[in-house]
Specification:
Blueprint (H helix, E strand, L loop, with lengths): L1 E8 L6 H17 L4 E10 L2 E8 L2 H17 L11 E6 L12
Length: 104
C-alpha cells in the first residue's frame, strides 16, 4: 500500500468550510472511483494549514490521485484560496495498524 500526504496553505481561512464541502462533495467521489483506492482523510491543522492523507494499492495509483487532486483544484477554481502547489509526499506504507473510527 502507498500513502500520499498533501499539505496545503489556505490563504483565505474564511473559506475553509467551503473548501471542506467541495472536497467532500466533489473530490472524494473522484478519488474513491480511482483504481486501488483505500481511503482519504482531510485534516484541518489551523493557521491556514490543511493536509490530506490518502491510501492506494500501488505507487502508480497514488501518483494518479495527485494528478486528479491537482486537476480538481484548477477545475473548482480554487487557485485564489490555494495559490501555492501543495507539498506532496508519496511513499510505501511500511507499518500499518487500523481500528474502526468512531465518528464524533
Amino acid at each position: 500500500m502507498y500513502g500520499t500526504i498533501r499539505r496545503y496553505d489556505v490563504t483565505d481561512e474564511t473559506r475553509s468550510s467551503e473548501l471542506v464541502a467541495k472536497v467532500k462533495d466533489r473530490l472524494v467521489p473522484q478519488l474513491s472511483d480511482l483504481p486501488g483506492f483505500n481511503g482519504y482523510f482531510l485534516i484541518e491543522a489551523g493557521n491556514g494549514i490543511m493536509s490530506s492523507v490518502s491510501f492506494f494499492d500501488t505507487a502508480a495509483h497514488a501518483e494518479e490521485s495527485t494528478q486528479v487532486a491537482s486537476d480538481w483544484v484548477r477545475e473548482s477554481e480554487l487557485e485564489s484560496m490555494l495559490p501555492h502547489p501543495p507539498k506532496i509526499t508519496i511513499g510505501e506504507v511500511v507499518v500499518r495498524e487500523t481500528r474502526e473510527l468512531v465518528q464524533a
